[in-house]
Specification:
Helices cover 17% and strands 50% of the residues. A hairpin with a 6-residue loop joins strand 3 and strand 4. It has two helices and eight strands; from the N terminus they run E-E-H-E-E-E-E-H-E-E. Strands 1-2-8-7 form a four-stranded mixed beta sheet. A four-stranded mixed beta sheet has the order 3-4-6-5. The protein has one domain: Gyrase A, domain 2 (2-Layer Sandwich).
């Protein structure tokens, strides 16, 4: 999973195997540590229809509806899923070339 932060947006680029893991209801996680408390970043599938993104207690959790995960997996033409949370754009993009 690659994560890019830019201009109040967060882009997650996920591989084919990571998308497969999400479709099996597994979370993707990444930890960023600078010597103090680490920032934990999670990309999670959810049965809810509304996506969400929450930053609290050194954790950034993005929840993607399972319906969107399945669409990304099954539709070759669908490259991205995006939404807004508190004025921030969240984008999940397939990155099958790397």
């Amino acid at each position: 999973m690659k994560i890019r932060l830019k201009n109040n947006s967060v882009k997650f680029r996920i591989s084919k195997s990571e998308l497969a893991a999400l479709s099996q209801e597994n979370s993707l996680d990444h930890q960023l540590a600078f010597g103090g408390p680490a920032l934990d970043i999670f990309l999670r599938p959810t049965p809810k229809e509304q996506p969400s993104a929450v930053l609290a207690n050194y954790s950034f959790v993005v929840a993607i509806p399972m319906t969107a995960v399945q669409q990304l997996k099954e539709d070759e033409k669908m490259r991205t899923f995006s939404f807004e949370a508190d004025g921030k754009k969240i984008l999940i993009e397939k990155d099958f070339k790397s």
